[in-house]
Amino acid sequence: MNKLRQAIRHLDLRIRPDPRRVLLRPFQPSVVVKPLPSREPNPRIAHLFSRVMQLDEASVAHKLEEVFEDFRDRHQRIHDLFAQRFQQIRSFLPTGRPLNEPRRLLLGSFFTSEYSLESAALFNPSIVPAPDQGGVPEGAVRFVLSLRATGEGHVSSITFRTGTVDRHGDVTLDQPSRFVQEPRPQPAALYELETFRRKLVELGVEYDSACEATAGLPADFLMSELDATVRALRSRGAKPGILRAGERAILLAQANYTVRFGDTAELSERILFPFAPSESNGIEDARFVRLDDADGGPLYVATYTAYDGNVVLPQMVHTRDFQQFSICTLNGPAVRNKGLALFPRKIRGQYAMLGRQDGENIHLMFSDHLHFWYESSVLLRPSEPWEFVQIGNCGSPVELDDGWLVVTHGVGPMRKYCLGAVLLDKSDPARVLGRLRQPLIHPDPSEREGYVPNVVYSCGSIAHRGNLILPYAVSDSLSRFAVIPLRELVEQLHADGP
User: Fold this and answer.
1) CA distances from 278 to 10, 312, 313, 329 (A)
2) Residue 176, phi-psi category: left (phi > 0), alpha (psi -120 to 50), beta (remainder)
């Protein structure tokens, strides 16, 4: 094990949170910066409208120019964003008379605020080869790195970086843009009724109530049709259980949506910020993987955890180009808890995935459908003291000639997180070929302090020219890279045995 540890290179490169990367978000007085604020008006909103409406035209023009002068260099298209924000809040206006553009823009600015995405942390990285490898030097690979960005209120979102790994395993990061932007999400085109009802049951809704709340909907329905059905439930005073089922159905439908970024937006500018109510407390720990056997060419898929402050909801995001992203809920009793990670290809004709359904063991599951998972079995249990509290995956398995390499995490005394590794059989991943008995990486003295101390963690790695390129988080604060020779790692896994 000492030989392996001595062979690991920890690169000097650090990816630190940058509080200057700020996003324009809706703002209402007395409402926290989390998404989907209540549409119910409150007295402070009315007071603010009244004060702005009482300004004369000269004062409006002067104040608006002052706002532009203060913020135009910090954001792209700030004029358009203020105009969009006014459209979102115009229903609260106490008057129906038309307003000129300067007053509309000024009102939009009063209901907008900056949100620093990375002010608290930038951690839990996941890495995949980029869709476009054109112009890359011989022996190098361009990559996309996703990270969990955490800001005010501990709200997490997904942000991206790009870079290259050269033939020697050295990493170069591209300079991220100073600007960030989020797209405008659109609901899913269609929802399948029976699948929808099954998911409601998984979320704790009685089946009879789910059926009654969605009665009259076609087999494939639109969001507008569901909205009309639930409004009808409210208007006729449906029983509380049925009405709750209808409200839950709305929340579930909102968790399935698509977003697209503009053609000019650099990848580092694109932010997947919480949109659905199920994500209101954050989008956590995206584990991206490239599925090479998907129809229509390579498909990038990530599992992530949506959290509303009470309920954890496993979600999945699909993209082919990192420009358009489709978000959907995962279905079935096997997708519970956190830490789901897909294998990069089908095995014996089925999709395969790792998870931690019981909170402490690594489970293995198979499915004919990417979005439906019904059964799982325990693959690994904690066996060494450094992982007695729990073990889990640190991203999707990496395919090697020797088998499936799974980077794991273990939690031991004093809630100290370390990284380990497991080797699984390629044709039968339920068969463990090797398992490190000592941690692969543990927090060294320079990595112990942070937002959550004594933690190293990752959400995904790649193999490149004989090395494992492993980005990992340092105490839930920043991220760095380790380069691990695969030959030495596999030798140690075989030596330690199953």
Assistant:
1) 37, 8, 7, 10
2) beta
Round to whole Å and give the CA distance between 40 and 26: 15
Q: Mean pLDDT over all residues of the chain?
A: 93
Quote the pTM value: 0.92
pLDDT digits (tens, 9 = 90+) for 110-138: 999 999 999 999 999 999 999 999 999 99
Residues 6+ apart with CB under 8 A from 424: 379, 397, 403, 404, 406, 430, 431, 432, 433
| Token pair in block for residue 461 | 């790695």
pLDDT tens per residue across span 390-405: 999 999 999 999 999 9
Query: Burial letters for 307-328: b for 16+ Cβ neighbours within 10 Å, e otherwise?
Result: bbeeeebbbbbbbeebbebbbb
Task: Return d(Cα 286, Cα 338) in angstroms, integer.
Answer: 10
CB 112 within 8 A of CB 24: yes
Which amino acid, 465? R
> 2-19+117-184+256-496 has which fold?
Tachylectin-2; Chain A (2.115.10)
Domain range summary for the chain, segments of one domain joined by +: 2-19+117-184+256-496, 24-116, 189-254
According to DSSP, the residues that pair with 472 across neighbouring strands are 480
**Bridge pairing between strands 312-319 and 299-307:** antiparallel
- What's the CA angle centered on 396, arms 414 and 199, to 5 degrees? 90
> In whole angstroms, what is the distance from residue 258 CA to residue 38 CA?
22
- Residue 66 belongs to what H/E stretch? helix 57-71
Q: Which two tokens stand for residue 137?
A: 């030097």
